[in-house]
Amino acid sequence: MKIILAILIGGLFGFVLEKSGAANPEKIINMLRLKDFHLMKVILLAIGLASLTLFLLMAAGIMGNFHLSVKTSYIGVIVGGCILGVGWAMSGFCPGTGVVAAGAGRKDALFFILGGLVGSFLFTLIYGAIKSGFLFEKIGGGSAVLAHTGVAKHVVLIDFLPGLVVAGGIAFVFMAAAWILPASDEK
Prior knowledge:
By secondary structure, this protein is mainly alpha-helical. Helix content is 63%, strand content 2%. It folds into 2 domains: 22-70 and 143-187, no CATH class; 72-136. Strands 1-2 form a two-stranded parallel sheet. The longest helix is centred in the middle third of the chain and has 24 residues, at 107-130. The N and C termini lie far apart (46 Å).
């Protein structure tokens, strides 16, 4: 049953990505060039709503915090994020939008996916040689969270406020930014 639910949610997510234009590399590149704010508005609104909903559900006891998984922070995460960002800006695809674009028939997305698979394979080959290097040094003690999530094993950076207040404030900032950004035809 879980796999069916995952396929349904993934299909719905892919549909939304395609309909919002997020699988179109020209729209992504124009967003990154600050020429078209449509996708940026969609992304900011989605992050704000999802964050607020998550913390509201946790505060109401409807969803347990056992669904949250905070990964350990390493220096390599920053390096990998920079590589991903450069690849995203050059190609107009991120891993999710690349798969959606391939499903929509874009041939350039197939080359993007192939490049990602080759890069992953090469990383697998060199992992043994670099695993004891500086890239895997923990940042800030490993896993830290900005607000209280109810999981005691994480360092809380804003310890004096409830998680819902911190997450709600950030969510409203994201949603306000989405509201304030100009429409696509204004810029």
